[in-house]
Amino acid sequence: MKHIGIDAGRALRVALLVAVGSGLAACSRGDAAEEGPTLQTTEVARQDLEITVEATGSVEPIRTVEVKSKASGEILRLYVDVGDAVSRGDLLAEVDPRDVRNDHNQAQADLEVAEARLEIALAQLTRSEELLVAEVITEQEHEGRALEHANAKAQLVRAQTNLQLAQLRLSDVTIRAPMNGTILTRNVEQGTVIQSASGNVSGGTTLFLMADLAEMQARTLVDETDIGQIQAGMAASVVVEAFPGQTFRGSVEKVEPQAVIQQNVTMFPVIVRLDNRSGLLKPGMNSEVEVMISARPNALVAPNGAIVQARDAGPAAMVLGLDPESATFDRSVFAALQAEARGEDPAEAEVAPGGGAPAAMSFEEIRAKIQSGEISRDSARVLMQASGGGFGGQGRPAGAQREGSPQPAVTFVVKADGVVEPRAVLIGVNDWDNTEILAGVEEGEQLAMIGAAQLQAQQQEWVNRIRERMGGGVPGMGGPR
Predict the structure, then answer these.
(1) Considering Cα of 369, then 375, then 377, then 383, what sign does the dihedral take?
(2) pLDDT(230) > 80
């Protein structure tokens, strides 16, 4: 019995050891699986790349006119309604003309009296001159006749002026269209008593609101981060909810100088002029506006996640499990790419000017050169030693490269055998999805995708590694001093 108990204990211990060993093996296999994440790739392809600025706005007429009456009184007739198209001079409405017609008749009568009075005064002045020559009347009596004649002439001028004004007021009771356009609103009905626009301090009664709808404009607000790229004359497209499948073409008319702040966001009004001879666009429609900043037809492009800026090449290589030093490129590489993009011989590209030992530079100057790709990280270390300092990494800036000036960058080409090769490239315009590649890769090549979160996690480790190598941090370039 004792011998059997010893054998059973040994068997139990062996079983436990086997179980533990199997568990450790399983854990080891799981760790190995975690160490080798699936590599996501994308293909370099050609497509049309358009850089646009998008904003929302509303459609409105270019010019609206308030139609008012110069005459006061009751509206007798209305000849148009909302939506009617009218031409300049068309009759729109009539105001009760009785008061102004009476004034006109009175002015006409006053003119006839003034003409008769002047005729009599002229005859009396002529006889007075004859009597004065015959010494029948005195000089004073003759002067009195001359004064009466002058007063008669003045009264005639006054009567003529009053008649002209009465004729104008009589014409004011018929309201006519001041321009070609469409009636947008009608604010009065037949029988409404209106106030004159010229004789009322409040500006009078507005009868109609009209506008020319053959040309419209879309008014939109553009964020100040994009407004510097928009100029008058740029092509624009507008889509309205009423016609979702149709695009209305136009151009930027102007960028207004006064900013508008909404919810602590600074924006500027942008006016896009549209041809509306079709009559489809109506005032007040909501619109989606796209302003074309730049267009690259049949451009060589890759997703933004497959390209990193030159200063982030080291951390990106660490994300892919590569040696970060393998992703460091000398300035001459980018100079050759620039020559290739210009159609020149890369072998004749100008590299660094001069030779000899590098001159001491400030930390800000060195950081700017690294960010622009003018110098490599190895060159930066030498410059830092000459300046008596170290080197720190910088994060990739948010947003897209909109202007399209050539910029150095790095991508990681996945070969047919699965080997990942860092490659220097020159990039152009960039939207929120794709980046134009000017030189460095060919169509059809596979590129490794770099996750933004993974890159950010490796950037701090890269900074710490460089700081340890250089013996401390760099003031003004991130990290503790």
Answers:
(1) negative
(2) yes
